[in-house]
């Protein structure tokens, strides 16, 4: 008891300088190490964690305090880790069963290269709105569409950018999206009022994406249609020689879609879909039980094909089909672990809250308030490599300031989504950035310029803040007594 009492009294509150220093160290390390020396982001994040830990100890906190906070944050990440692992299992099972190859096969058969980019964007948007999950959409329809892109010989960075934009469009606007619900709840806004207000920034972004992807498709279509028909024919023939397609192969994605629409727990539905896919692989595709199990754990390999000359297959087949497995998601686990360790070290001393409250001082105009919200949300997202944490922190920290200025809270919830939720997949070291790059086989920096929806929201948020257009004032209907009822 005496030791605990002494430790508590010896703790000192961190100043703004000491609170923000770990963020500066981490971001500076990433800027130099990642972009100059091509060092992975995780060591730089851990360097920021070490800096935050040393500062905490120098201010009277013990290692046990820091470790406890880190463990609490990592425990919050466990659901994310479980979902990532489940998706790894799922993709391996969908590959060996023929579900994703069938999507690719008919995508190659039906989609004209001239309309590929806009088709990828709209399909990703449709699926993510229905399911409320950007990661699930990337890991299923996203992989299928990038496979079609490889077959059509179109630009993979543009294709990946269109897919990411579409999948995060639904993640932002779907009423069954966890991030959308969190943003509304943290700011104290009715869910559907929040979604409606998002259309001010997401709507123009959607139109801009549609124009750019349609134009780029028109520019690429003629060249692709002239140079690739033979490649497409060979690729389709190769896929058709490996798998036997039938309507039952659509059952696994239907299970996932049903679970999302009916708000079932995601992990059991993912495992159910995986199990059904494994059965389909055994019944229809003729793979051995050991190959099916290996595909789910380590990913599908062409060497699993029996009674076929693998060397005779199209050269694009291995790049297209050798995917999935829980082991393939290991890099995502490392990133999530590193990011949440940093968040835990910062949370032990309350540094994040100190930085947020310091940034709100001296803000007078609506434009500066929105700009400060954007910078703060993005900074936390970049520092923690997590798009959910800034929604919760900034929603709580800025709520009173927006109310004091007579601004509706839905302005705040919209801004945190514009600078947090959809920006995360274009941050190379974030969990979403690593996940998208892994799933699509295109580096984050390569697809970043073409993931238009991921940064257009910030542009329109600042435009409306400067002009006053789309900025809602406080109204009696903004009362929050019915929020829980609507969100449940």
From TrEMBL:
Residues 166-469 form the Na+/H+ antiporter NhaC-like C-terminal domain. This is NhaC family Na+/H+ antiporter. It is found in: Cell membrane. InterPro entries: Na/H_antiport_NhaC (IPR004770), Na/H_Antiport_NhaC-like_C (IPR018461), NhaC_Na-H+_Antiporter (IPR052180). The chain crosses the membrane at residues 16-37, 44-61, 81-108, 115-135, 141-170, 191-215, 235-258, 270-288, 326-348, 369-393, 447-466. It is a multi-pass membrane protein. One of its GO terms (molecular function) is antiporter activity. Keywords: Antiport, Cell membrane, Membrane, Transmembrane, Transmembrane helix, Transport. Belongs to the NhaC Na(+)/H(+) (TC 2.A.35) antiporter family. Signal peptide: none annotated. It comes from the Bacteria. It holds the Pfam family Na_H_antiporter.
């Amino acid at each position: 008891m005496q030791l605990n009492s002494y430790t508590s009294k010896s703790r000192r509150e961190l100043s703004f300088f000491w609170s923000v220093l770990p963020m500066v160290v981490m971001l500076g390390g990433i800027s130099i190490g990642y972009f100059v020396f091509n060092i992975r982001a995780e060591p730089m994040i851990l360097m920021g964690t070490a800096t935050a830990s040393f500062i905490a100890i120098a201010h009277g906190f013990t290692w046990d305090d820091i470790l406890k906070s880190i463990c609490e944050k990592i425990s919050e990440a466990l659901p994310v880790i479980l979902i990532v692992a489940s998706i790894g299992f799922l993709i391996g099972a969908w590959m060996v069963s023929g579900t994703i190859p069938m999507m690719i096969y008919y995508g190659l058969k039906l989609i004209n290269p001239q309309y590929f980019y806009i088709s990828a964007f709209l399909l990703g948007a449709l699926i993510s709105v229905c399911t409320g999950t950007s990661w699930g959409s990337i890991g299923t329809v996203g992989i299928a569409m990038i496979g079609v892109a490889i077959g059509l010989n179109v630009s993979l960075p543009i294709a990946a950018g269109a897919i990411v934009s579409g999948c995060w469009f639904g993640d932002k606007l779907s009423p069954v999206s966890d991030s959308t619900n969190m943003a509304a709840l943290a700011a104290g806004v009715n869910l559907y009022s929040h979604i409606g207000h998002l259309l001010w920034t997401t709507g123009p972004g959607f139109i801009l994406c549609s124009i750019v992807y349609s134009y780029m498709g028109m520019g690429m279509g003629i060249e692709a249609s002239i140079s690739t028909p033979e490649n497409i024919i060979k690729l389709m023939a190769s896929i058709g020689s490996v798998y036997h397609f039938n309507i039952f192969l659509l059952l696994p994605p239907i299970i996932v879609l049903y679970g999302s629409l009916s708000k079932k727990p995601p992990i059991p539905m993912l495992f159910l879909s995986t199990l059904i896919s494994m059965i389909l692989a055994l019944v229809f595709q003729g793979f051995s039980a050991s190959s099916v199990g290996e595909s789910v754990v380590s990913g599908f390999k062409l060497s699993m094909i029996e009674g076929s000359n693998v060397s005779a297959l199209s050269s694009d087949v291995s790049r297209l089909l050798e995917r999935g497995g829980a082991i393939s998601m290991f890099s995502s686990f490392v990133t999530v672990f590193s990011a949440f360790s940093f968040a835990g070290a910062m949370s032990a001393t309350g540094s994040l809250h100190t930085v947020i409250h310091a940034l709100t001082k001296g803000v007078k105009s609506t434009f500066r308030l929105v700009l400060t919200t954007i910078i703060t949300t993005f900074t936390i997202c970049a520092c923690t490599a997590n798009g959910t944490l800034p929604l919760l922190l900034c929603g709580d920290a800025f709520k009173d300031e927006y109310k004091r200025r007579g601004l509706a809270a839905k302005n705040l919830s919209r801004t945190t989504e514009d600078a947090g939720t959809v920006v995360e997949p274009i941050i190379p070291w974030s969990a979403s950035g690593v996940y998208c790059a892994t799933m699509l086989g295109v580096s984050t920096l390569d697809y970043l310029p073409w993931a238009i929806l991921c940064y257009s929201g910030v542009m329109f948020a600042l435009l409306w803040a400067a002009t006053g257009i789309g900025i809602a004032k406080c109204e009696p209907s903004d009362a929050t007594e019915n929020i829980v009822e609507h969100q449940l």
